[in-house]
Amino acid sequence: MGLGDSPVGAVIAVSDMDRAKEFYEGKLGLSGGEDQPDGGRRYTCGDGTQIHVYPSPGNAGKSGATLAGWWVADVEAAVDELTSNGVTFEQYGEPFNTDDKGIARFEGGATGAWLRDPDGNILAIASQ
User: Fold this and answer.
1) DSSP structure class, residue 26
2) For residue 31, what pLDDT is reported?
3) What is the SS3 assignment for 71?
4) Which of 114, 71, 112, 109 is nearest to 91 (CA)?
5) SS3 breakdown of the chain: % helix, strand, coil, rounded to 5?
6) What pLDDT digit, counting tens, does each position of 101-113 carry?
7) Number of helices (H), then strands (E), in the chain
8) What angle do CA 76, 81, 87 make, to 5 degrees?
9) CA 54, CA 37: separation in Å to the nearest integer?
C-alpha cells in the first residue's frame, strides 16, 4: 500500500499541554482525546481523520504556514460558533482579503478562515 492509499493526519507541536487541551477541547470543541505515550493527545475528527497535539516547546509555533485545516459545510456558521467560544480569527489582506469576521471568499464560492492556537500555530477552516 502506498502513501496515497494511507490515512494522513496533522501533528502539531505545543509548549504547554494543559493550555493546549483547554484550547483544542474547550474552544475548538474537539472531544474524545486520547492520551499518547509522547505526552500528547490524539483527537479523531470527521471521516476518521486525526489531529495529534504533542509537547515540544522548542518547536511550538515555529511555522508561519497553516498546519491543519477542517473542511466544514458553512465557514461563516463555524466562525460564529468559534468566536462565541473566544476564538479570534486572523485578518489578512492580499491575496486572501478577509472580511470583518476573518473570512476570505474566493472565486467559485470557496471560503476560508484562519486562527491561531495559544502557541501561534495556524489552523484553518474552509469550504469548497
Assistant:
1) I
2) 94
3) strand
4) 114
5) 25, 30, 45
6) 999 999 999 999 9
7) 2, 8
8) 100
9) 10
